[in-house]
Amino acid sequence: MMDQISFIGGGVMAEAMVQGLLSKKLVGPGKILVSEPRKERREELKARYGILTSDRNEDAVTSSRVVILCVKPQDVNNVLAHLKPILRGA
Q1: pTM for the whole structure
Q2: Is the pLDDT of residue 69 over 80?
Q3: Which of 6, 64, 67, 82 has the fewest CB atoms within 10 Å, i.e. the most exposed one?
């Protein structure tokens, strides 16, 4: 596993945490991955912060030791159900 921090969901909450990590120089942009379903949002985050992005939540889980779930409460069950097989093998 890479020494990386991943965020599932690329909304305002995730962006605030990414910005904080980068501004405090706790981690470099190449060590942050955000999985986000909306292409335009992925591109915006990548351009603004130089971070890694993906449209697959699986990438966030399999490439990081730390995964932060930043999705709307009504989406949590669906996201976790989709990731359950991957998390069991971890």
Answers
A1: 0.91
A2: yes
A3: 82
For 51, the token pair is: 């971070």
Inter-residue contact 35 to 57 (CB < 8 Å): yes
Are 6 and 34 a contacting pair, CB within 8 Å? yes
- Cα atoms in the Cβ-side hemisphere of radius 13 Å centred on 30: 1
Question: d(Cα 60, Cα 69) in Å, to the nearest integer?
Answer: 10
66, β-bridge pairs:
5
Domains and CATH numbers, the chain: 5-89 (3.40.50.720)
Structural contact between residues 14 and 7, judged by C-beta atoms closer than 8 angstroms: yes
CA–CA distance from 10 to each of 64, 75, 77 (Å)?
16, 13, 17
CA angle 45/22/15 to nearest 5° reads: 40
